[in-house]
Amino acid sequence: MIVILTDTEPVRAVKMLRNHLAEETSPYLLQHAANPVDWYPWGEAALTRAKQENKPILLSIGYSACHWCHVMAHESFEDRSTAELMNELFVNIKVDREERPDLDKIYQLAQQMLTHGSGGWPLTMFLTPQEQPFFGGTYFPKEPRYGMPAFRDLLRRVSEYYREQGAEIAVQNEQLQAALAAMVPQPVPGAVLDESPLEQARAALEKSFDGTFGGFTGAPKFPHSTSIERCLRQWHATAAGTAPDLKALYMASLTLTRMAEGGLYDQLGGGFARYSVDGAWMIPHFEKMLYDNGQLLCEYARAHLATGEALFAKVANETADWVLRDMRAAAGSFYSSLDADSQGHEGKFYVWTPAEVQSLLTPAEYGAFSARFGLDRAANFEGEWHLHTYATLDAVAGALQQSPAAADALIESARSKLLNARNLRIWPARDEKILTSWNALMIKGLAIASRVLRRPDLAAAASAAVDFVRHHLWRDGRLVAAYKDGRAHLPAYLDDYAFLADALLELLQTRWRSSDLELARRLADVLLEQFEDAESGGFFFTATEHEKLIHRSKTFGDESLPSGNGVAASVLCRLGFLLGETRYLDAAERTLRAAWAGIQAYPQAHMSLLNALEDYLSAMQILIVRGEAASAAEWADALGTLYAPTRMIFAIPNEAELPPALAAKRAGPATVAYWCRGMTCSAPLTDLSEIARTLKLRVA
Fold first, then answer.
1. Residue 604 and residue 245: Cα distance in Å, rounded?
2. I want to staple 69 with a disulfide (CB 3.0 to 4.6 A). Which of 62, 213, 247, 366 is the partner?
3. Beta 57-62 vs 123-127: how paired, if at all?
4. Are 333 and 356 in contact (CB under 8 A)?
């Protein structure tokens, strides 16, 4: 276990308490606990004070790994004169968007509607005491620059506008409420669910594809894991036909390859940064998020299964190693993020100079490493070098007149030495709160990687994280969204339930535990009871029991996280087929119908729902293996050697306690399998080779 020294210790701020954030668990809020700003967390105290004093609310939303959040904090929130003005004119509320995505969704959308600009963080919103937004933006500088006013000037103007233009604000609020209500999609009467959006999404992906560096946007460039998955699934759907879609496979493979070669990927420690500021994946925005890495771990493992490409296995292994080494809590759960900054500078933890590297390596190691990662070229980040793959291993070996294996050994030795040296630096701050939804994404990634890479330690880590969630974040039949310092709090959101159920279905295919299936069923039931829109279909982001906000969000598009509605529909579809539960299948269909207008208009924005659509239309293939635990697992391993996204394989031991639909698939005196398509299942199959031929596999 590495002892991480950071230059940002939020807990120290509590010793200089000046506001109302000291009792919070969020590291982001604790970073602001010593500000001279009289910050409140979102809650009754702040909202009541605003109403009693008829003061507008300044709502600031950010997160601990956000670079520009830190910039605005240093410039304005730590400045006493600015803080005095904020305290005089506003009730100031600070929100961690990772703990309160419900608030972030509402006020990001409101900001875009009010200003016709893009959103982002820090989000700076001005609200009436009734929580209605009337002005907003993102980062505001202390002094006028970037075409923006000085923050202090803006504060005065906003306060004056609130005092003098109450009637105008009231009219605007009515218009905004109507616009927010209109954003909730309505189902298309008589819509026929078909594969046409899959074809439209495929065309849109090719149109936006970067044929040089991969990816589907220009700079800033995000991984878009759901688009990569869609390409892999598109290729698989056509692979058995006369015209396999090799271009779709190429788009996924090139994107994964270029990301792995680039500076987006941590070439020493593994794991990915959040996005690249350029189109070549060279220089990242250096924050590393658990949710990105959980999704990318899935895609690299799947791509290795689909292609056999060694690079994809290497990256999956190294990313999993990074998570277990640097992001895992002692109790088995996973932390949220690593900051972009250390010692006050973005990327300082990750960059090098040639002289520093040369001092740590042998001449032979430096010769190979510098050629591979560009230390023999011009600096690429503020006068220093951020590692990025410039030369192939064969090219390095040729230049050194060595074999590729010998050159690779030198590079790996150099990587190990440099990682050890880097670990002695002052680390970026680590946000150590535990988020249910983000842990679920990593549990899913570890479960898939465990099967593909044949690493039982990853399945064990995934199981330990599930156990943590069950013991600390599942209370009285409801999930809790966040945990830190022994305190679990905040009612969970759609993503928490959907992502965790999805992760459990993947983990059950890696190692069977009946308790995990039972938890998945209970999560699905809460989705239907608390989140489903009974009239129009689909799921709201917050539960019926949730506190009343100015808007109850129901969105279908993917963002940095996959769509909660898309994942929920896929989970309910697969769980419905597995358990013979038509109510789950019906809810999945209602969700697809509710989203159909958006799916047809912008299929490329709804990749998670397209995956659910494919699951629904394909009538999932399910292979259930029953027998002694070891034998059943061997069968499942042998039958799971091909990439098959619409197939699930479960190895269920004889002694497992099961719900009726699975209990009916009894074990025999020897290992048997049941082959199901949709709701129809075969008689027991006892010949492994015959089953493999049915699946077009080779079994040794």
1. 17
2. 62
3. antiparallel
4. no
Average of per-residue pLDDT across 580-604: 96
Cα–Cα distance for residue pair 693/680, rounded to 1 Å: 20
Contacts of 78 (CB under 8 A, 6+ apart): 35, 36
**CA 689 to chain CA centroid, nearest Å:** 39
Cα 582 to chain centroid distance, Å, stands at 30
Strand (E) or helix (H) holding 137 = strand 133-137
The one-letter code for the residue type at 581 is: E
**Are residues 235 and 249 in contact, defined by beta-carbon separation less than 8 angstroms?**
yes
Residue range 462-491: mean pLDDT, rounded? 98
Q: Which residues are paired to 637 by β-bridges?
A: none
CA pair distance 580, 573, nearest whole angstrom: 10
Average of per-residue pLDDT across 381-398? 97
| Dihedral pair phi/psi, residue 262, rounded to 5° | -85, 180
Contact 176, 163 (CB under 8 A): no
301: its two tokens: 């493992």
Residues constituting the chain: 700
What single letter denotes the amino acid at residue 421? A
In the predicted structure, residue 29 carries a pLDDT above the cut 50: yes
502 neighbors 571 (Cβ within 8 angstroms): yes
- Whether the CB-CB separation of 448 and 316 falls below 8 Å is answered with no
Query: How confident is the model over 159-183, as a mean pLDDT?
Result: 95
In this model, does residue 697 exceed pLDDT 70? Answer: no
Contact 301, 452 (CB under 8 A): yes
Range of lowest pLDDT (82-96, 175-189, 205-219) = 175-189
Is pLDDT at 8 greater than 90 in this prediction? no
d(CA 256, CA 251): 9
**Residue 562 C-alpha from the chain's centroid:** 7
CA distance 279 to 638: 40
Residue among 618, 560, 561 at smallest CA distance from 588: 618
Residue 401 Cα distances to 11, 361, 383, 405, angstroms: 54, 19, 31, 12
Distance CA 270, CA 273 (A): 10
Number of neighbours of residue 383 by Cβ within 10 angstroms: 9
Lowest mean pLDDT among 5-19, 135-149, 160-174: 5-19
Phi-psi region of 688 (alpha: psi -120 to 50; beta: other; left: phi over 0): alpha
pTM of the model: 0.96
Is the pLDDT at 395 greater than 60? The verdict is yes
Q: Which of 613, 577, 607 is nearest to 193 (CA)?
A: 613
Tokens describing residue 365: 């190691």
The three state secondary structure string of 271-309 is CECCEECCCCCCCEECCEEHHHHHHHHHHHHHHHHHHCC
Q: What is the DSSP letter of 384?
A: B
Q: In percent, how much of the chain has pLDDT > 90?
A: 92
Q: Nearest 5°: CA angle at 655, between 650 and 657? A: 75
Sort strands 39-41 and 91-96 into parallel, antiparallel or unpaired. Answer: parallel
Q: Is the peptide bond preceding residue 220 cis, with omega within 30 degrees of 0?
A: yes
The structure tokens listed for 665 are 């698939």
Q: Which residue has the tokens 């849109």?
A: 204
Residue 61 phi/psi, 5° resolution? -115, 130
Residue 107 and residue 123 in contact, taking contact as beta carbons nearer than 8 Å:
yes
Q: Distance between CA atoms of 676 and 623, rounded to whole angstroms?
A: 6
pLDDT of residue 2: 34
Tens digit of each residue's pLDDT (9 = 90 or more) over 252-279: 999 999 999 999 999 999 999 999 999 9
Q: Mean pLDDT across the stretch 440-459?
A: 98
List the one residue out of 95, 6, 97 whose CA is nearest residue 438.
97
Write out the two tokens for 388. 């990025």
